[in-house]
Amino acid sequence: MLAACVRQEGLKTLDLSASSGIDFYTDPLMPSVAELDGTPVHDLLLSDPRIADVWDDCYVLQNDKVFYFVNRETGAAEGGIDHVGRGPGEYIFPINYSRLGSVAAITDNLNGKVILYNRAGEWIGQREIPSSSMFYFWKENGSVVTYSSTSDHDLDFYEGDERIDSVDVASGPDKTGSVFMTNLDLFNGQYFFKPTIGDTMYRVTDEAKLVPYLILDKGNLRMPEAYYTKMSDWYAHSDDYITLEYARIAGDYAFVEYNFHEHMVRELWHLPTEKMLFKTTPQTSLMELGFPVEFNGETIPFWPTYVNGKDAYAVWGEEDPVILRLRLSD
Predict the structure, then answer these.
(1) N or C: which end of the chain has fewer CB within 10 A?
(2) Is residue 184 part of a domain?
(3) Nearby residues of 82 by Cβ (< 8 Å), 6 or more positions away
(4) Which domain covers residue 30, as residue numbers?
(5) Integer Cα distance of 35 and 325 in angstroms
(6) What does R_g of the chain's alpha carbons equal in angstroms?
(7) Integer Cα distance of 325 and 146 in angstroms
(8) Cβ distance 166 to 156 under 8 Å?
(9) Range of weakest confidence among 39-53, 147-161, 188-202, 227-241
């Protein structure tokens, strides 16, 4: 196994820079696949679909601006959210999806609003939010609005319609003017926040506090914050640094991806031991971006676009897509 760097006390640390000279790696102790099943999707014409959510009875499959509800057992389409437009209950550019219970929220970044829909895909309400922001549910009757770093803070916490707190994580003079958005996601039943600038992923508590949880350590491949203030500077220097790093957490595993030297890199890490188990840096096709699994007598690359608990989900195939659910052994 490739070891992580020197730990910061109390924090899990994944040393992304340690394997910068390695394009491909599979650890001899790579965990086996404990469960893998697939649901063929029927009667939908799709192009580059991704899993946006998993409900008790259906998958939410995002394809461009449409969110299809796909039965988890049969793979049949059962309606969805398709309300593109400029009128009430409609959106132009769905930049983010979030759900709490039976209510789904779609952030329309161009219109500066969040539109709420029920399980039937019906419009049930909306609220205004600032431009260059994204809306997330956070807890029952609670929500979070995250901002690009052009704002003077990163997150606003709400209970109902009342703002109860504002948090600024990436402080400093180089923060102002950055055009990059922040991310907040639900992993293992907890919400996590990852600013674009900085190495730390934070756990979001029910008390609207951010607790450092995971360090995605880029070492000397961390881009200076000054380069984030202008898109032209970022593009001019991004090849020399690890950028756009992110982690999806499923059980004890972190599916990490980032950009380096004009390529997308994907790595699988074991969190309890802080060890990298797998790495791929494809030179030709994005279809190579994943670790090999056996499905229906064929070896295919798997990499999730959504995780829920210990399960990871991906869509495989273009003409006859299949929604895959995978769980690695403990």
Answers:
(1) C
(2) no
(3) 65, 66, 67, 121
(4) 1-74+242-330
(5) 8
(6) 20
(7) 29
(8) yes
(9) 147-161
Strand, coil or helix: what is 128? strand
Does 299 fall in a domain? yes
Which amino acid, residue 318? E
- CA distance linking residue 112 with residue 119, whole number of Å: 23
Q: Encoding tokens for residue 317?
A: 């195939």
Q: What is the DSSP string of 219-235?
A: GGGBPPGGGGSSHHHHH
Counting the structural domains of the chain, the total is 1
CB atoms within 10 A of CB 196: 19
Distance, in Å, from the CA atom of 258 to the CA atom of 247, rounded to the nearest integer, reads: 9
> φ, ψ for residue 22 (rounded to 5)?
-115, 130
pLDDT digits (tens, 9 = 90+) for 182-230: 678 889 888 998 887 788 999 999 898 889 999 999 999 998 878 877 7
Helix, strand, coil in percent for the chain, rounding step 5: 5, 50, 40
Do residues 218 and 17 make contact, with C-beta atoms less than 8 angstroms apart?
yes
pTM of the model: 0.90
Distance (Å, whole) CA 21 – CA 1: 15
Percent of the chain with pLDDT over 90: 52
CB 64 within 8 A of CB 97: no
Which amino acid is it at 27? D
Does 93 reside within a domain?
no
In a domain, residue 297? The reply is yes
